[in-house]
Structures are given as C-alpha cells and as structure tokens.
C-alpha cells in the first residue's frame, strides 16, 4: 500500500481535531485539542497540512446555511414546500430563535467559529515556525497571508449575519461580533465589539495579507491569491460606503482579470472542470458534502426563483436566465449548483461556491461611481455586464434612464440578475436601508418588513449566551 506523507497524515489529524470541536460553542476548548495543537504545529508539515484544513472549514460554512440565508431571507426566492421540518423555513418566515442550535442560527455561528479557530491556530504558530525554520520564511509568509484573508472573511461574514449593517448608525458604533485573534481559553469570556471595530480588524487583516503576499503569482481560483485582497476590500468598502476605496480596489481587479463569456460563463457553474476565467476565489467541493445542491434541487424542502426575478430578464437571449430555468421542464429552478458533465459518477459531481468574481467588481464600481455622481462611468460598467450576458460588445448596449434614481434601479436589477443565489440579496437590501418587499407569489408568512428592523439579523445562539455572560444578545433573542 502506498504510504501517506507526513503532511497528509497531519491533514487527516487536523480534520479529526476539527470534528471534535464541531458541536462546541466557540468559547469551549477541548482539553485534547489544547494538548495536541502545539505538537501538530511543531514543524512545517503541520502548518502545511493546516492550510488545506482551513480551506475545508471555510467550505463547510459556505456550502451551507451561510450561503443560502441571504437569498432565503430576501425577496427573489420561493420555497414551494413550507414545512416546519424543512431547512431554512424559519429564516424564510423570519421566525428564527436563539434556541435553534441545529439550524441556521446555531450552525452559521458555530461553523464560522470553527473556521476562525483553524486560521487563528495557523497565525498563532506561524511566527514560531518562522524562527525555527528561517529557510521557509517565504513559504510561511504566503501561508500567513492566506490565513489573514480567511480570518477577515470569517469576521466579515459573522458581522453580516449577526449585526446590523455598517451604516445602521452614523459611526458604526452599534454591536458587532467578538473579534477573535486567538482562540479564547475556557475561562475567558469575550464581548462583542462595535461594527466599526470589527471592520477595522477586517481591513487590517486584508492589508497585512496584501503585504505578506508581495509579488506572489496567482496560482488558481481555489486558493487565496494577491488579487483576492482588492476584490474583498472592494466588497468591504461597499458596505462601508467608502466609494473612492471601492473604485480603487474594484479597478485593480478589473484591470488584471477578465469576465467569462458565452459557454465558458455557463461552464463555470455546470462543469466541475472549469473554474472560470472570472473566478477570483471559490471554494472546492470535490469529495465533500453537496448541501447547496440538495437545497436548491429538492422539490420537498428546496427553493426556486421567484417570478419577479424571472421578469427582470426581458431579453430572451440573456445567458444568465439559463441558470434559473430547468432546460428540460422549462420550469423555474436554480441551475447554478448542478454538475452537467457527461459521464461523471455521482461521487465526482460537486459544486464550488463562489466567494468573489470579477462581475461583482463591475457592479460594485458602478454603484460607487453613481454615488460619486458619475453616472456616465456607472453606466459604462453596467454596459459591460449586460453585453457579456447578451453576447454583444458594450458599444452595442444602450441604457435608458432619466436620472440617477432610474440608473440606481438598473444597477440594482443587474446585481440581482448576476449575483442571485450566491449569498448577497438580503445584505444588499439592508446595507441600502431598503424595506423587504416580497411578491404575491411568496409562500412565506412574512410579506413585508420595514427597515430598520431587529429581524434583519439573526439572534445570537442561546447556548453561546448561556456559556458566556459577557456575550450581549440581539434584541430579537
């Protein structure tokens, strides 16, 4: 039998350690974990194995409730079967409770903190290894850069789900989430920081990642690379409404990467062998659970595009519509997580959720340009997105709008069409301070929600509140 390498053995050991933590709230520390972690990170094989382990933990929470929650709680999706036992029904009906440990409320919290624990272990032990193995300094810097980026993602995603948007208060002084730069001990009770403090740490980590990356060349879409940093900063600054910074960072990505076009656009969703030209960063689902696929393809507990979403596709040639309608039944059905490779076994089929792609950068920049009162530049970016969708040149596209308000609506609709079912919609509604307005076809018991509203965020899990007396609840707990 072929012998496993030391690095692979340590990778398996890391996954087993992660499983042992999977049912803990983030302040609980397994005594076995405390003993074995320093040993695990005592050499280069350990930290090399820890990095794929960290990506695996990131996939766990992206291939799950975190990724579908913003669409389920949004206004462009319908759940045909609204059964109390179905996945995400409480989030669809806005009846989430802090007691729901085995659902979105508990799972999003615990899965992200599992991922955060993994990246913080890398960041904690990396300096010791750099001192111990000076010849591996450059390799360790690249590992550290990726871990810093992933830590920024963890804090950003937690804050989006469990805290009101950045602009909810004028100075973002409202409650965010704990900022954890190391795994707290069993007797260490941490408190939530303000949203401003959380975002400050996110930006610090991203800028430090950029510094560590240096001139490193991009490898592939499935690992964090230097170009992912400005892409992520563009999104973070969009939420903060720092328009100049959105433009600067989005432009850096646009100038260095291109959009996927035609069949390649469809293939990056439906062909497991195609990462996509425009994929800045996505997470590999190879040989992993396919929860998102099951959710969107299940006729008993899944979800389909709302009629309102489909009416936005006024041109039948819009390639994006093919990802929202079953090609055989012609019925509404999300096709973004369906492997259509011929001859693949079920075990080979998988979905790789996008974290960042180039099209988002055009949409971010268009919104920023408009808020800078530069409508012509905003329109040019939207023309690029529409042209790709219709297989045309941007010069062939004409946008008709009477004023900035009408152009803002065009930008919003293009963002909906482009990014639907990729984990954005609810956050786009709340950061813009909009009301939630669902169509008459919704099966949800909740049709309308006025902004601001406490229900736009999930409650803190009850188990966390019980374990940590310093943890402040949300108003809807």
UniProtKB/TrEMBL annotation:
<keyword id="KW-0998">Cell outer membrane</keyword>
<protein>
    <submittedName>
        <fullName>Membrane protein</fullName>
    </submittedName>
</protein>
<comment type="similarity">
    <text>Belongs to the SusD family.</text>
</comment>
<dbReference type="InterPro" id="IPR033985">
    <property type="entry name" value="SusD-like_N"/>
</dbReference>
<dbReference type="Pfam" id="PF07980">
    <property type="entry name" value="SusD_RagB"/>
</dbReference>
<dbReference type="Pfam" id="PF14322">
    <property type="entry name" value="SusD-like_3"/>
</dbReference>
<feature type="domain" description="SusD-like N-terminal">
    <location>
        <begin position="70"/>
        <end position="238"/>
    </location>
</feature>
<feature type="signal peptide">
    <location>
        <begin position="1"/>
        <end position="25"/>
    </location>
</feature>
<dbReference type="GO" id="GO:0009279">
    <property type="term" value="C:cell outer membrane"/>
</dbReference>
<keyword id="KW-0472">Membrane</keyword>
<dbReference type="InterPro" id="IPR012944">
    <property type="entry name" value="SusD_RagB_dom"/>
</dbReference>
<feature type="domain" description="RagB/SusD">
    <location>
        <begin position="334"/>
        <end position="475"/>
    </location>
</feature>
<keyword id="KW-0732">Signal</keyword>
<dbReference type="InterPro" id="IPR011990">
    <property type="entry name" value="TPR-like_helical_dom_sf"/>
</dbReference>
């Amino acid at each position: 039998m072929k012998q496993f390498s030391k690095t692979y053995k340590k990778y398996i050991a890391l996954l087993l350690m992660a499983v042992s933590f999977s049912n803990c709230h983030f302040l609980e520390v397994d005594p076995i974990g405390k003993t074995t972690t320093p040993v695990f990170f005592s050499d280069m094989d350990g930290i090399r194995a820890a990095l794929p382990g960290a990506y695996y933990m990131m996939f766990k929470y992206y291939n799950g409730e975190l990724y579908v929650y913003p669409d389920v709680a949004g206004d462009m999706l319908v759940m045909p079967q609204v059964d109390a036992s179905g996945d995400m029904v409480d989030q669809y009906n806005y009846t989430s409770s802090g007691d729901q440990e085995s659902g979105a409320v508990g799972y999003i919290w615990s899965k992200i903190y599992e991922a955060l624990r993994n990246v913080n272990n890398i960041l904690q032990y990396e300096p010791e290894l750099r001192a111990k193995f000076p010849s591996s300094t450059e390799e360790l810097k690249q590992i550290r850069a990726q871990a810093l980026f992933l830590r920024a993602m963890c804090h950003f995603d937690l804050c989006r789900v469990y805290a009101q948007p950045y602009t909810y208060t004028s100075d973002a002084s409202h409650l965010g989430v704990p900022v954890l730069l190391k795994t707290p001990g069993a007797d260490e009770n941490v408190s939530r920081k303000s949203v401003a403090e959380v975002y400050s740490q996110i930006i610090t980590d991203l800028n430090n990642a950029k510094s560590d990356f240096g001139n490193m060349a991009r490898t592939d879409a499935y690992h964090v690379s230097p170009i992912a940093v400005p892409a992520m900063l563009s999104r973070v600054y969009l939420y903060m409404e720092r328009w100049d910074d959105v433009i600067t960072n989005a432009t850096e990505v646009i100038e260095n990467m291109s959009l996927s076009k035609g069949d390649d656009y469809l293939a990056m969703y439906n062909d497991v062998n195609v990462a996509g030209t425009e994929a800045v960063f996505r997470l590999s689902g190879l040989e992993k659970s396919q929860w998102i696929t099951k959710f969107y393809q299940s006729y008993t507990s899944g979800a389909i595009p709302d009629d309102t979403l489909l009416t936005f596709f006024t041109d039948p040639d819009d390639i994006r519509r093919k990802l929202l309608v079953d090609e055989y039944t012609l019925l509404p059905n999300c096709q973004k997580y369906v492997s259509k490779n011929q001859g693949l076994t079920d075990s080979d089929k998988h979905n790789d959720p996008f974290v960042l792609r180039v099209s988002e950068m055009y949409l971010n920049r268009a919104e920023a340009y408009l808020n800078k009162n530069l409508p012509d530049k905003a329109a040019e970016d939207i023309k690029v997105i529409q042209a790709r969708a219709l297989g045309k040149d941007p010069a062939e596209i004409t946008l008709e709008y009477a004023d900035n308000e009408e152009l803002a609506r065009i930008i919003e609709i293009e963002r909906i069409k482009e990014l639907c079912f990729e984990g954005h919609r609810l956050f786009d509604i709340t950061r813009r301070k909009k009301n939630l307005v669902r169509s008459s076809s919704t099966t949800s018991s909740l049709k309308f929600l006025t902004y601001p509203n406490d229900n736009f965020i999930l409650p803190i899990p009850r188990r966390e509140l019980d374990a940590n007396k310093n943890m402040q609840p949300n108003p809807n707990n």
